[in-house]
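Lecture notes, unit on protein representations.

Consider one protein chain, 349 amino acids long.
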Amino acid sequence: MLLTSYELGNLTLPNRLVMAPMTRARAVDGKPTEATATYYAQRATAGLIVTEGVHPNAVGQAGPFMPGVHNDEQVEAWRVVTDAVHANGGRIFAQLMHGGRIGHAEVAGHHPVGPSAIAAGTDVFTPTGMEPAPVPRALSAAEVADQVQAFGDAARKAVEAGFDGVELHGANGYLIQQFLSSSANERTDGYGGSISGRIRFAVEAVEAAVDAIGPDRVGIRLSPGGEIQGIVEENVPALYGELLKALPDMAYIHVLATVDDERLMELRKAWPSAFILNPGGQIGPNVSTQEQGERWLANGADLISYGRAYIGNPDLVERFRLGLPLAGADQATWFQTPEGYVDYPSHQH
């Protein structure tokens, strides 16, 4: 089933493999490079590519060497990437990732913001190395509205840059999940406290993107119950059950396997449109397999996303098709280095 086609909104995907978003930290001055275009074009046989996290505004930049999509120069640079992917027959969404409290003033000249003034209790990347995450400045209600609108504005910019759509990053401890989290969000206004308050930011951010570019071009990534970067979520089944009910119609939800199979199946049954499952779960060393993907398609997922497997295997679809072994990837070259990016060969070479 992984190699069968699928209709996703207004796109026909030739297979059900999604290249998952992965930070590669190779942007220059907030812009992707020609190597970025090569990197994604090499992997254009994926049914869908979702890019690395792209900040929707300057304060949302989580780390150094990460690209944005909020000014004209960034749009122009991304157009080179999307043109290359489309020329190779691919489809590509931009992942809009607002770091929230995961960030540092040294990264982009802005102090990080969050739902509450609570530090993540973890280290963050800076231009000079790892540093403790600072206590973020709590957003006022008016500023929350500004951050919501940033997702809509960035979605519009992404389509202008040639992307087929956007995925909002609501997972892995970044701003959207910070609002969902009981450990990062201690607000007492309409964006905190009850489940309806904690899901409000996520819902409004998605609505802003949908209003900007239409429902067929918008998805969201979620890691229910995932504990990373200081995140704790209370009453996960109820929290995500209410979130899925409140989200507007859109192309898909992209769920990491951060809860058990029973909970994942409940989410699958609760969501009416496309369901992308990432079997790898929490960020870690494991590489998801073809067998895991086929099992989840049989269990009701529509598409399967692969992250680390795509680093060393630009031709992952063909390797699955032919039953070939997968190449490994050197973790020392995941970020910033010139090697380990566009130099992994296909099986033919």
